[in-house]
Amino acid sequence: MSSLIAFLVRLYTGVFGGLERLTDGWLLGLFARFVFASVLFAYFWKSGLTKLGDGFFGFLAPSAGAYAQILPTLMEQVSYDPSQVAFFPYGLIVLLGTWAEFLLPIMVVIGLFTRAASLGMIVFILVMSYVDITGHGLDAASIGALFEGNPASTIADQRLLWIFVLLVPVLKGPGFVSVDAFLGSYYRKRERYY
To answer: Is it the case that residue 18 has pLDDT exceeding 90?
Structure first.
């Protein structure tokens, strides 16, 4: 019986150890970026579009909706008039938040400065969750709680999964199908010649 157990342990460690060696360094980061692109990229892109001002240079002057989404309590105090909000620091926060909602997801998907962009997205999600809870007054059912058994809770459950998907490239890197890998390869080749 012990030889059968020893065989099964060797088989198990051999199969899964081989699988781990085969995928090490490329699959997890690439697949996490793929999941982010397929599940969350359009969400953040559409949300960012609602924050743009009018015209071609709308990315330089966020809409009143951007202010209301990012600074809900402050906007309520000024009767939803963005001209009553000081540029520093509040207007700058809205402007940078709007840009981050476009730039960080693109950087994660193409794999450019992936670790920093993924970490930036994690911070973005945490801040977004805080604003949703404190500024937009979500109810307890929408907020949810960890280990409650209700995966429909928008904040606690879904956003924890979003953060996990982004934590993988922070810790494991983007994988070899990425701009980072291309730039790293180019830089290493260039260093050999100098």
So the answer is: yes
